Amino acid sequence: MPSPLNICLLPGDGIGPEVVDAALEVLAAAGQRFGFTLAPTVQGIGGAAVRASGVPLPEATRAAVAASQAVLLGAVGAPEFDAEPPARKPETGLLALRQQLGCWANLRPVRRVAGAGFTPLREEVVAGADLIVLRELTGGLYFGEPRGFAPGRQSACNTLRYSVEEIERLARFGFHLARQRRRRLTSVDKANVLETSQLWRQVFQRVAADYPDVQLDHLYVDNCAMQLILRPTSFDVLATENLFGDILSDEAGVLAGSLGLLPSASLGGAIGLYEPVHGSAPDIAGKGWANPLGAILSAALMLRHSFQLEAAAAAIERAAEAALQAGVLTRDLVAIGAPFASTADCTRAVIQRLAAEPAAIRAVPRRRLTSA
Question: Whole-structure pTM over 0.85, yes or no?
Fold first, then answer.
């Protein structure tokens, strides 16, 4: 029997604990089916950690993360801390966690599953959309120095900074991903205004010479935001910097139908970080309205990238898609006032389909994405 999977669970705030619990249930069911066991530990992060210990990323959490093989995060964010100084803001804990892990490549897959519920876009526009937003995660405005308020708080400063090394490693990661998909890479920048974007574009153009089989094109971020809505099926892999990637991947949620469907994987360090793209949604916490699929699909990415359990990862993804196609739709996927499945209902539906999947189908993996 292989060693148990050493996973650090960080439920966090709002609906985070609910969706992490759902993902853990699905992981346990997959383990029974595919012959692995779990050794999870649970630690605090975000607002929950501030309430318990005064800081958003306690030393106990740092130590548990460092001792794990992979981290599964729920969500961070609590309105009660909005007026607090940065050291007590829940989001500071997430940024510090990313720095600790050194995960610089953030993969955010977006797929439109036929029948996956309500979307404000016409189905013929989003049908077949299947792309990955590749976001640089440890540079740019979120981490650049100097930053902060001037005395008297009458002005503030953030620094947008990127090095050739940071850009090149993400570019090579992006080309590698595109090679495993439809061999098209779109680099998103603002090179008509920003020097950092001019450097970004130069590096991508240089690296492209090593990948002649991948088509590279460039889009300004404002145009990309529009084209994602107008022609989403034309995109394969979008590679961009930290802030642009944060915004564009949230926008891409409308292609799938909801942010609640979007998983993510943060790679590049020794320990991967996996989390749904959605926020903490404190207004619906505890009501059973949360969509667990973003967390469940993040757990599938964890099995794939941190533990090389491709068959189990692909089976979870197929089970989630089958549940959607069968009409098991959570509140975020239906029109206002329409009946919807609860968090528990959706989780059970995935587990049932995971257990019922014929062996012949389980043996056929979906397309695997590996890191560079």
Answer: yes
Contact 266, 99 (CB under 8 A): no
Largest CA distance in the chain: 67
Asked if 42 contacts 11 with a C-beta cutoff of 8 angstroms, the reply is: yes
Overall residue count recorded for the chain in this entry: 372
Q: Per-residue confidence at 18, pLDDT binned at 50, 70, 90? A: very high
Element (H or E) spanning 132, and its range?
A: strand 130-136
DSSP code per residue over 1-62: -PPPEEEEEEEESTTHHHHHHHHHHHHHHHHHHHT--EEEEE---HHHHHHHHSSSS-HHHH
- Enzyme catalytic residues: 142, 190, 222, 246, 250
For the chain, domains (ranges, CATH) are 1-107+259-372 (3.40.718.10), 119-256 (3.40.718.10)
Average pLDDT over residues 156-185: 97
Residue among 149, 114, 97, 118 at smallest CA distance from 266: 97
Contact 218, 204 (CB under 8 A): yes
The stretch 298-325 carries a mean pLDDT of 96
Using N-to-C axis directions, what is the helix angle for 310-325 and 16-34, rounded to 10°? 120
Per-residue pLDDT tens over the stretch 248-257: 999 998 999 8
